[in-house]
Each structure stands twice: as structure tokens, then as C-alpha cells.
Amino acid sequence: MKVAKRIERLRALMEQRGIDVVIARSTTDLMWLTGFERVFDTEQAHIAVVTQTACSLHTDMRYSTAMRTRAKDEGIWQIDDERVSAAKFVAAFLEGAGLQGGKVLIDTDIPLALYRALVEENPKVEFVEGHGDILALRAVKEPEEVELMKAAQEVASKSFLEFVDKLHVGMTERDASLELELAMRKNGADELAFANIVASGANSANPHSVPGDRTLQPGDLVVVDFGARLNGYRSDTTRTLCIGQPSKEQLRIYETVKLANEEVRHSIKAGVTGAEMQAVAEAVLAAAGFGGKMGHALGHGVGLDIHEAPLLSPRYDKPLVAGNVVTDEPGIYITGQNGVRIEDCGVVTADGYVNFCGLSHELVVVGGENSI
Predict the structure, then answer these.
(1) pTM for this structure?
(2) CB 228 within 8 A of CB 155
(3) What is the DSSP string of 282-332?
(4) How far apart are CA 285 and CA 261, in angstroms?
(5) Which of the four pLDDT bands, split at 50, 70 and 90, describes residue 1?
(6) How confident is the model at residue 367, as a pLDDT?
(7) What's 247's DSSP letter?
(8) CA–CA separation, 323 vs 286, rounded Å?
(9) CB-based contacts of 293, cutoff 8 Å, min separation 6
């Protein structure tokens, strides 16, 4: 039933825009449109076409048996594994459907070589450029999707608690990251939602620092950004730890970020814009003397991809809607010194925000009293 409803939503968009055919190639778009679980991997070996009466997915023999098995459940998708190029598959499909001269929606992220091949094989088609049209449909999560994301968060949160107990002075960032990955996999994650960030000392001021050979030292703030992927869906969380007791300035930075996170959490609801939420966080930081010290967007959508629509950023002026799943991740970064980020992920509702993460916002002191 969930796949039928998704196709209905896509077909309604097609009718609204006067589109005859949609071509989908993004793996996560295909995962969402088909509902196939544990079939797709990271290889983009597939292309799909959707009309008002048919859904056909072209793949190869490495995937076709599993796809046909999954497709029987819904009876919506036809699987084609003929050994032809994606462009020739589309041309044959359009000819069979009598749509060689139709309007075909393609996403602007399609590779240039594939676009050129499609144009060459389909000279009468009117290609219409879209940008994230299916992604926009995916931005409103179904209740079942929300439950899958909560499950991924539970795995990540449990793993983080185990990980904190293993941290110690002298451990490298890379070894710490491996401990966290091992914990998530042992606790049931299919894989990481994204590459872990474990950034200590001055590295904590680099928002996307890559774990390296730097060892954890007394007095370090350590930013840990992590997530689990489970049944296709992802979690996203950041907590900042301190190795030993924090200085007064470190604690002031931390408490400011904590306040910004919580002010945003209490402000998010359907109808507010991402730009407005960014302004809420920035105002808290500026009031404490840290204006301009965040430098990145406040948050982003999460789902089958780790970065999806919508955004919480200065340039996102569209209202959030119930069912959006977004992060709330303010930060302060003092170059060469300290960085702090606190990130939660949750679902927007008509009158608020339901945070998936139950981990405490209190600063965790490694080698002291842990407050998690």
C-alpha cells in the first residue's frame, strides 16, 4: 500500500505539471518509489520510468531476481534486465507506450553523458528539467518511515553510551571512531549513516574534521558526530564531550550552544521557515558574544539520505510542514582553540517537534562524572 500511495503522489505531480513520463535514477529515489528493502547498494545500476499507467525499472542480472521477488508484493513495478543501455531502454519503453513525443521529466543531477545519450536516442522527446522533485515528495515522512528512523536512533544512542565508556587519554581520534563504528554494528546497524566525526582539541573547531592520529588530551573538547543506518533509514546526532574538567570559557561556549539548540527545539513547528529557525539560533549565539561563530546551516532533512530537504538555513524561506524530519545542530567554532556542536534529529508536527534522541544535553566529562 505504501508504494501505491507514493506513486499516486508522483502521478499527481505529473498531472499538475503536464508531464507524461518521469525518469528516476537516484538510488534513494528508487528505494522510496519501489519500497524494495535490502536490494539496492551504492552502485547506480538502475533507471526507472513512470507514466500514468505503468512503472518500469531497468537493472541487470545482479539485482533482477531480488527485485522481481520484491515486486510481487505490490504488483506495481515491472522489472527489465535486458542487456541494453539505459538510454535504449527508455527509448524502447517510450515507443511501446506511444510517448516518443511526450514531455519527460528528468532531474538536473543526472550525469551529462546519460543526458546526451537520452537525447540522442529520443530525438522527439521534450525533456523537462526538474530539481529534486521526488526528493521533495520524500521530505514528508510517512509514520512508518518515522518509526524506522527512531529505530536507527536507538541503535546510535545505545552505541554512543558504550563508546563513551571506552574513551581515555591517549586514544587517537581514529581509534575512537572505530570503537563507535564497532558498537553501532554490534548493536544492529546495517552500516554507518555517514563517516563518523571525532574531532578533539583544536580539531573540534573544524565542523567536518576527519578523525586522525591526534590523541585525546586532558582539557580537550571532543565533537562526536555519528549516525546509524538501519533498513535504509538514517539517524544523525552530535554530542560534545570534555576530557577532564572544562575551563570556564569552554563551559560558557557549551552552555550557549545548548541554549541555542533548545530554543530552536521549542520554536520548530509546521509553518515556520528554515530561515526563521536559523535566526533563532544565531540570536542566542550573538547575545552571548559568539555572533558569526557558527558559519553553517542550522540543520537539514534526514531520511534515506543523510542530507535531504528541507533545510534550516538562511536561504530556506519555505515553511516546514508536518512530517518533515530535520536536525537541530547549532555550533560555535573558535579557530585553533575549541568547537562545540549539539545535534538532535526529530519530526516536525503541527504544533511542535518530536526529538528522536534521548541522550542528555548535559556536558559529558570523560574521566569525571558522566551525565548522559
Answers:
(1) 0.93
(2) yes
(3) HHHHHHTT-TT---S-SEEE-SSSSSEEEEESTT--SBP-TT-EEEE--EE
(4) 10
(5) low
(6) 82
(7) P
(8) 31
(9) 285, 332, 333, 334
